[in-house]
Amino acid sequence: MPAAITEEQARLDRDGLLDAAELLFYERGIRAVGMDQVRSASGLPLKRIYRDFATKEDLVVAVLRRRDERWRGDLAAYVTRVGDPRRRLLAVFDWLGEWFARPGFRGCAWINAYGELGSTSEPVLREVRSHKELFHRQLGEWASAAGVDPVEPVCLLAEGAMVTAAIGGSPDPARQARAAVAALLP
Predict the structure, then answer these.
(1) Distance of alpha carbon 37 from its chain centroid, rounded?
(2) Please, is 69 exposed, middle or buried when counting C-beta atoms within 10 Å of its C-beta (0-12, 13-18, 19+)?
(3) Phi, psi of 185 (to 5 degrees)
(4) Per-residue pLDDT tens digits for 4-63
(5) Are 166 and 101 spatial neighbours (Cβ–Cβ below 8 Å)?
(6) What are the residues whose beta carbons fall under 8 Å from the beta carbon of 66, sequence distance 6 or more?
(7) Nearest partner of 140 among 70, 83, 99, 88, judged by Cα
(8) Mean pLDDT, the chain, as a whole number?
(9) How far apart are CA 112 and CA 27, in angstroms?
(10) 139 vs 75: CA distance, rounded Å
(11) Which residues contact 24 (CB under 8 A, 6 or more apart)?
(12) Closest Cα partner for 21 from 7, 11, 12, 34?
């Protein structure tokens, strides 16, 4: 009889599985990746994977949720280093530009997930909407602190920059959106 898995090992296995799934889904697309590929990349047996995630959809939601926490945390850490509210709002677009320039950038994982599964998966759609609402709320706080009202144009510029950078393969949309936001500042 195999030894029982410790809580620590279970956590490490789950993190490894989520890392592998996130990388595969982001690089290749959710529909293009089968669970056998996730199994191979994670090194975990399918039985173990399905014990934690009953469906591929459950795994996708977990990947998006964990990525959301990390992505928004990284953004906030970058932006809040800046003291001046106006410069803080512009720093959002500096961070986006750095993200767009990273090797392997394929656009917004939530927009991509919505494009693949948003019309067929209510749980994925809820997770995408949750991420966008939280991101827009944070942008709204920074925009309001900088004196920009209404805040919707800032959100549209950020979202548009993400899509345009992914399609065009260039970080330039972040710089262009930054310039547009600078023009909105009082």
Answers:
(1) 22
(2) exposed
(3) -70, 140
(4) 778 888 898 999 999 999 999 999 999 999 999 999 999 999 999 999 999 999 999 999
(5) no
(6) 18, 22
(7) 88
(8) 96
(9) 11
(10) 10
(11) 33, 37, 38, 41
(12) 34
Token couple for 44: 């975990």
Query: DSSP for the chain?
Result: -PPPPPHHHHHHHHHHHHHHHHHHHHHH-TTT--HHHHHHHHT--HHHHHHH-SSHHHHHHHHHHHHHHHHHHHHHHHHTT--SHHHHHHHHHHHHHHHHHSTT--S-HHHHHHHHHTTT-HHHHHHHHHHHHHHHHHHHHHHHHTT-SS-HHHHHHHHHHHHHHHHHT-SHHHHHHHHHHHHH--
> Which residues lie below 8 Å from residue 112, measured CB to CB, with a gap of 6+?
26, 29, 30, 106
Q: Are 176 and 138 in contact (CB under 8 A)?
A: no
Q: Which residues contact 141 (CB under 8 A, 6 or more apart)?
A: none
Q: What is the pLDDT of residues 78-101, one digit of tens each?
A: 999 999 999 999 999 999 999 999
